[in-house]
Amino acid sequence: MNTFQLKKGSLRIEGDRIFISGDQAWFVKALHLVAAVCWSVFFALQAQKHYKTFLLTRDLAQLAFLLISALAVGFWVYVGFTRGLRGTGRDEIHVRQIVKAQKELRASDAAPLVTLFLRNNRRRTLEFTNLDDLHFTDSLAGKGVLVEE
Question: Which of 49, 71, 99, 145 is the most buried (most CB within 10 A)?
């Protein structure tokens, strides 16, 4: 069985790749994108204000604030691109990216959890609906991934 039912979506294993569908990761991506757009607009307006003040007063402090605001706009555009737009196809995990997997059973709602520890200090927590689907970790162990209880 290569398809497992998650609480909000499904997980499918094909070869050395894991495909996750129906996850709520789109909400986090949209939230990052909206926040980045709002902060970019805010700092762009601040930069415009400091530029106009610099043209009137020729004060170098206003020019410094203009530069800081322009850097902040660049930073938030970068955050919006990397977190909101570029990460849209990240519902695919290669088995070689997984450092270890940790199984956990929450007593509050008896939902089994598997946390995948990925390279680059990333984590992906999967919440399964059935205890039977925890043999997903056995599939990972068969592919050489360290599984902890």
Answer: 145
